[in-house]
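It is worth pausing here to work through a concrete case rather than discussing structure prediction in the abstract. The textbook approach is simple: state the sequence, then state the predicted structure, then interpret. We follow exactly that order.
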Amino acid sequence: MRKDTVKLISAEGFEFVIDKRAAMVSQTIRNMLTSPGIFAETQLGEVRFPEISTTILEKICQYFYWSLQYARY
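Step two, the predicted structure:
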């Protein structure tokens, strides 16, 4: 996996590979990927969401891209 992408994994095991900038829209994901120490999320660049279904995670990813493009911070 490239350093500029992140893999988000749904409860069913479906993998969404998205741009890291888009994933960083979420403060929670940002914290998981940038926390100091040796954590799987930081090392592998992937985050598992065992409680979030594939359909919901897909919508979340769509929101990340929308927010990255249109939201003003």
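Step three, interpretation. The longest helix spans residues 54-70. The CA atoms of residues 20 and 28 lie 13 Å apart.
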